[in-house]
Design a protein that fits this description.
CATH architecture of the largest domain: Up-down Bundle
Number of strands: 0
Organism: Psychrobacillus mangrovi
Main location: membrane
Structural class: mainly alpha
Shape: globular
Keywords: Cell membrane, Membrane, Transmembrane, Transmembrane helix, Transport
Largest sheet: none
CATH class of the largest domain: Mainly Alpha
Distance between the termini: 43 Å
Protein name: MFS transporter
Strand content: under 5%
Subcellular location: Cell membrane
CATH topology of the largest domain: Growth Hormone, Chain: A
Number of helices: 16
Order of helices and strands: HHHHHHHHHHHHHHHH
């Protein structure tokens, strides 16, 4: 009877978690859309816009290890709720300033820093709590529903933001974000973060492990797990080399091929739709039998797609054909992204002990957030001095090479020993 009740509660968590993520992600992305437009209209300066992006990235990179330590040593439910409340207070403060003194860049930058920190603590803690909220059989479903909420917000928020921006004032955007965050807090407060958790019980009066020692223990745990270590290294390489795609894609379409802004938006929408459709599929199907192998070949396919971005620069195409090509390419890219990420996330959820999840996920967060800006700066410079097609083809080759070397057949056999007898040719 108790097990049945736990499974019912887990089902409740699945949908509460998804609804909460949809509401908070949607609110955050509509806010980001509005603030980005506001900064550009206020200053007309790309550097002011870039400064706001830096305010969103830099704090996450510096504070991620502390978020991991907190998630492993304190109440995860409390961290999530306090993070959401801090978000509400920060937006409330910005709303007060906008109504009394008028919005200033300093106030916007300060708010971006606070929101970056609160979303980091909330994100790392939620990632660490998945196996405590749902039963093991539905981890893939939980990860897929999380991706659905992100994709849904990515598709809908620019449309809603664009529709509202010309008709309502900035305070209305801020009130909408506050309401979304309040609803998210109410939903999250009803969740039991310890339902399936296997964390070590804290003895009353027992001193907590010092922060530095705790962080070292997290790194040590990661180093002792060969497959987990390879997954993290591959993730870091993907984040770095993906900079060639992120910078090059917009540069090629807008600067080189002169694609209309509306048509450019269609290609980006196709990417989000591809992610959404594949996430829905993963949420409905059984867990993959060979997740490491599936991710390996999906990354190889993504590497090929990165090279394909340069194709219209090498082969003459009509304008319509070029737009259709990129819409199809981005749709399949979105599908491949989910096929890559979901199995890796499920494997990490199952391989990392509950007591180490926060620290390990924060290591991944720190590496990813540090390498993404580095990749963007490096590739941004390279696109100014080298042919775009050469950069994309070399980056494509490097990504495929890294994956084939790091996830070689001997490593695949360690991850899936049963595969050796079943289908050795797939490795």
């Amino acid at each position: 009877m108790e097990e049945v009740l736990k499974l019912k509660k887990a089902t409740y968590h699945l949908w509460t978690f998804t609804i909460s993520k949809v509401i908070s992600s949607f609110g955050a992305q509509v806010y980001t859309f509005a603030i980005s437009f506001y900064i550009l209209q206020l200053t007309g300066s790309a550097s002011s816009f870039a400064m706001n992006l830096i305010c969103g990235i830099l704090p996450r990179t510096l504070i991620a290890p502390f978020a991991g330590y907190a998630a492993d040593n304190y109440s995860r439910k409390m961290i999530v709720i306090v993070s959401q409340i801090a978000t509400i207070i920060a937006i409330g403060g910005l709303l007060t300033i906008s109504l009394t003194l008028g919005l200033s860049l300093i106030a916007i930058y300060a708010t971006s820093v606070i929101l970056s920190i609160t979303s980091l603590f909330s994100g790392v803690t939620f990632s660490s709590s998945i196996t405590g909220l749902v039963d093991e059989a539905r981890i893939q479903k939980a990860m897929s529903l999380n991706q659905i909420s992100i994709s849904f917000a990515a598709i809908g928020s620019p449309a809603v933001g664009g529709l509202l921006y010309g008709t309502v004032t900035m305070p209305v955007f801020l009130v909408m974000y506050i309401v979304a965050s309040v609803v998210a807090v109410i939903l999250e407060s009803t969740m039991n973060f310890k339902l399936f958790a296997k964390r070590k019980e804290v003895v009353e009066g027992e001193e907590k492990e010092p922060m530095l020692q705790s962080m070292k223990a997290g790194v040590s745990f990661l180093m002792k797990q060969p497959i987990l270590k390879i997954l993290v290294i591959i993730s870091l390489f993907i984040n770095f080399l993906f900079g060639a795609f992120q910078v090059g894609y917009s540069f090629i379409l807008i600067e080189k091929l002169k694609i209309n802004s509306q048509h450019f938006g269609f290609t980006e929408g196709a990417f989000a739709i591809g992610m959404l459709i594949m996430s829905i599929y993963f949420s409905a199907r059984k867990e993959l039998k060979y997740p490491f192998l599936v991710s390996k070949w999906s990354i190889v396919v993504m590497g090929v797609f990165i090279g394909c971005v340069a194709l219209p620069l090498l082969i003459s195409m009509s304008y319509v054909m070029t737009v259709v090509f990129y819409i199809l390419l981005m749709f399949v890219f979105g599908v491949a992204m989910v096929i890559t990420n979901t199995p890796i996330q499920v494997m990490m959820q199952k391989m990392i002990e509950d007591d180490y999840k926060g620290r390990v996920f924060s290591i991944v967060e720190t590496g990813a957030m540090a390498l993404m800006p580095l990749g963007m700066v490096l590739f941004g410079y390279l696109y100014d001095v080298l042919p775009a097609e050469s950069i994309l083809i070399v980056s494509s080759f490097l990504l495929i090479l890294v994956v084939l070397v790091l996830a070689r057949p001997s490593v695949v056999r360690v991850a899936h020993p049963e595969l050796q007898k079943a289908q050795p040719e797939l490795q």
